[in-house]
């Protein structure tokens, strides 16, 4: 089966370009001024934006004054997120006959994605938003629209039932798969890992940031990419600071199925790291883990990594 990008099915080029922009900005933090200059309707519209003449909504915006201002996105192993969005109302009551709400229902009916931006706390001038990429409206429960973000592999529909999240340790893709598609998937894998570990190193719990930009934080594969390790599932990954990533890649440490840190016995390393707290972490549990148990590293991937570690001792 050939991988198909759902955006290719959108015939209106302007609309397709805007949706592609949401995907490209996924995970980015931008000021409202910056978004006004790039996103259609952002200057004038709040809540749900439905371009004139289109039956579909193009994007939704969550503001901090909304019903659930502090709610985090719930990320699933395939990298998709879940999120509930309150419909627009009239006189304090939900009114599904409003054009904006109808435009979201139309997206649900025809499985058309919408862009999602969410205001985040910020200081200084202007409001800050996090772009959450593209999402699909998967239902309306009487009080909220249920939204589901695009998975890492955009050509696959997001898995709905958690029971379906079976861990496939290896990607069954031909190495000849279009390079851009592969690269795109790697980027989305890294983004999903960052989201699930909240931009902090799993080992030392540090998340460096300068201004709005996270720095020196990297997503690592457990089963390496070169060995065909999957990039479609966050359970084959972990987020590390650049020091701990480099040491992980050189088998200075790993972790076991109980997520306990194991530091190499290598004398040279132990002597050089004597003043570093990594030696004191030996035997301790990883300090920063995903909120959901189901997003944690998979035992199959952990064992694979442990075998690599043992071979390199
Ligand atoms: Zn670290």
Structure description:
- The chain has 7 helices and 16 strands.
- With about 325 residues, it is α+β, with helices and mostly antiparallel strands.
- It has 2 domains: about 5-165, PUA domain-like (Roll); about 180-310, no CATH class.
- The mean pLDDT is about 90.
- The strands form 5 sheets. Strands 1, 2, 3, 4, 5, 8, 9 and 10 form an 8-stranded mixed β-sheet that branches. It has a two-stranded antiparallel sheet with strand order 6-7. A two-stranded antiparallel ribbon has the order 11-12.
- The two termini are about 40 Å apart.
- It has helices at about 15-25, 30-40, 100-110, 180-195, 240-250, 265-270, 300-310; strands spanning about 30, 50, 60, 75, 80-85, 90, 95, 115-120, 130-140, 145-150, 210, 215, 215-220, 235-240, 255, 260-265.
- Zinc ion (ZN) binds near residues 204 and 206.
- The site of zinc ion has 8 residues, from strand 14 and helix 5.
């Amino acid at each position: 089966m050939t991988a198909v990008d759902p955006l290719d099915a959108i015939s209106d080029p302007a609309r397709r370009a805007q949706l592609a922009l949401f995907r490209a900005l996924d995970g980015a933090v931008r000021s409202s001024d910056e978004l006004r200059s790039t996103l259609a309707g952002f200057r004038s519209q709040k809540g749900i934006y439905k371009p004139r003449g289109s039956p579909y909504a193009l994007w939704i915006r969550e503001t901090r004054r909304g019903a659930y201002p502090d709610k985090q996105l719930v990320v699933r192993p395939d990298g998709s997120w879940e999120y509930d969005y309150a419909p627009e109302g009239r006189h304090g009551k939900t009114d599904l006959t409003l054009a904006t709400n109808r435009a979201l229902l139309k997206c649900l009916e025809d499985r058309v994605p919408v862009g999602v931006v969410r205001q985040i706390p910020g200081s200084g001038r202007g409001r800050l938003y996090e772009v959450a990429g593209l999402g699909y409206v998967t239902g309306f429960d009487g009080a909220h629209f249920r939204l589901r973000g695009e998975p890492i592999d955009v050509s696959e529909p997001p898995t709905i039932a958690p029971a379906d999240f079976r861990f496939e340790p290896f990607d069954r893709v031909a190495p000849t798969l279009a390079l851009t598609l592969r690269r795109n998937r790697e980027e989305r894998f890294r983004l999903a890992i960052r989201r699930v570990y909240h931009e902090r190193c799993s080992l030392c719990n540090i998340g460096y940031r300068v201004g709005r930009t996270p720095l020196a934080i990297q997503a690592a594969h457990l089963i390496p990419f070169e060995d065909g390790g999957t990039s479609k599932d966050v359970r084959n990954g972990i987020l590390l600071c650049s020091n701990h990533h480099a040491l992980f890649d050189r088998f200075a440490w790993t972790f076991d199925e109980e997520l306990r840190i194991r530091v190499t016995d290598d004398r040279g390393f132990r002597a050089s790291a004597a003043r570093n707290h990594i030696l004191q972490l030996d035997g301790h549990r990883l300090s920063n883990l995903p909120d959901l148990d189901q997003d944690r590293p998979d035992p199959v991937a952990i064992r694979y990594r442990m075998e690599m570690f043992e071979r390199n001792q």
